[in-house]
Amino acid sequence: MNSLYPLKFKPIFKEKIWGGQKVKTQLGMDFGDLPNCGEVWVVSGVKNNESIVENGFLQGNELNELVEVYMGDLVGEKVFDIFGNEFPLLIKFIDAVDWLSVQVHPDDALAKKRNIGMGKTEMWYTLGADDGTQLISGFNKGVDKETYLEHLKNGNLNKILNYEDVNKGDVFYMPAGRVHAIGPGMLLAEIQQTSDTTYRMFDWNRVSDNGKSRELHTEQALDAIDFTHHKSYKTDYKSDLNSTNEVVSCDKFITNIVNFDQTIYKDLEPLDSFVIYIAVEGDTILVWDDGEEKINKGEAIIVPAYLSQISLVPKTTSKLLEVHL
After folding, report:
1. What average pLDDT does the chain have?
2. Catalytic site residue 206?
3. Rg of the chain, C-alpha, whole Å
4. Average pLDDT over residues 50-58
5. What is the mean pLDDT of residues 279-304?
6. For the whole model, what pTM was predicted?
7. Of 114, 178, 200, 214, which one is the catalytic site residue?
8. CATH fit for domain 12-235, picks 1.10.10.10, 3.55.10.10, 2.60.120.10, 2.40.70.10
9. Residues 67, 68, 70, 72: what is their CA dihedral angle, to the nearest 10 degrees?
10. What is the pLDDT of residue 2?
11. Signed CA dihedral, 264, 41, 186, 237: sign only
12. Which residues pair with 136 in a beta bridge?
């Protein structure tokens, strides 16, 4: 059997009612005949949306098929023991020219109860934001179910939602249960559990080209919402040059940011996990014993758990998100 190597995948483009052109103009991806691209999935084990390898001798194979064949060598022994043949994370880039719906995702317990796989905890890293861009994260005060339903019924839900100004480099952690919405003008990388379950609470009263409103999930959402109010919703983190800085650490994934202008050497063996590198600024050469692979801005690559020693060589000052379990 040939040795595993860092894997890149064909992007999966998703047209959205709120999507734009930045995937093409800022990330250099051609989404063909689609009028817009709201999301591009760059690493996915979601059923019927599995990523296809585009580099090396495994070209053409689906990600989950490779997990089944290579098991712990690809994802790490502890990861394979927990998740089996389903790759546990989904990596996207999202471009919004209009508000996404106000929505919430179930946690693992509720997802299991409803027999819909995993819950959906996620985080966002902002690659770019237009002047005045905002997003919604949580509530601006303590509310209960009754207060929430009253505002939803009366059409003034926005009065109890927490709006945050957004700038390039901002990070927002969105644990399952937190109400949220991405605002117009954002280009972001999203790291999340492998789940495509979204409960749409409010969709700004918009209709599609055929005059129909999108389905709302009021009842399903109600049991998923965490009504806890937090003083702060933005994630503070360091981005020291030529070092690895922790950004988000939770039981679903760990995300670091590597900000560097000189070669970084990595010993990944202690992790016992795959590592995903997501290029959010600059271009990088990933080097291992048997080869090298370029990671351009807007691309992601999976380093198998089998590979313990790698080097990251920046072409210019670069930033990578480093994600593992």
Report:
1. 96
2. no
3. 20
4. 97
5. 97
6. 0.96
7. 200
8. 2.60.120.10
9. 70
10. 64
11. negative
12. 163, 181
